[in-house]
Amino acid sequence: MKNELVINLETARVDFLGPTAEGKKHDKALAEESALEMAPDSTLLGDLGFQGLEVKDAELIVPFKKPRGAELTEPQKQANKMLASVRILIEHVIASVKRLHIVKDIFRNFEVDLRDKVMEIACALHNFRNLHRHQIPSPSSSTHTNQAYVSL
């Protein structure tokens, strides 16, 4: 099973949780079905699973893919390295959500929508822990937000 998340990198908060889907469904197809709308001038960071995705009013940044029979240029390698350093923050949020083992272990209850409810609770608990662990900075005057778009 997988879910898509939008994580605010400034606050390490889960801002959006998509519906639970089967694990073999492609990340891009899952994102296109949700028809996510972002704030104007938002920047989304995604992995190569989101390559080719277009989100209205937002810029999507994905790592450079090595071309067949060629190598990445040095600037492309540096850009990928910078994205990887940000990706660490995303992985920390995902690990915090998965701290509830019911999210990552085999789920044998087949009640309708129960998987979605469990994931909502896990994300809410992450946000609650994060809110009380760190001081949340006050909202800035700019409308530009940095968010990451991931599948979990």
Description:
The chain has one domain (4-151). It is α/β, with parallel strands linked by helices. Helices cover 37% and strands 16% of the residues. It has a five-stranded mixed sheet. A hairpin with a 4-residue loop joins strand 1 (4-8) and strand 2 (13-17). The longest helix is centred in the middle third of the chain and has 24 residues, at 74-97. The chain is globular, with a radius of gyration of 16 Å.
Give a short summary of the structure.
By secondary structure, the protein is an alpha/beta fold. It has helices spanning 27-34, 74-97, 101-104, 114-133; strands at residues 4-8, 13-17, 42-45, 58-61, 146-151. The termini are close together.
Please report the number of helical segments: 4
- Report how far apart the termini are: 8 Å
Quickly give the structural class: alpha/beta
Beta-strand segment tally:
5
The Rg value, from CA coordinates, equals 16 Å
Biggest sheet record: 5 strands, mixed
User: What is the helix/strand order?
Assistant: EEHEEHHHE
Helix content: 25-40%
Q: Indicate how many domains the architecture comprises.
A: 1
Poorly predicted spans: none
Mean pLDDT: 81
The gross shape turns out to be globular
Give the spatial strand order of the biggest sheet. 2-1-5-3-4
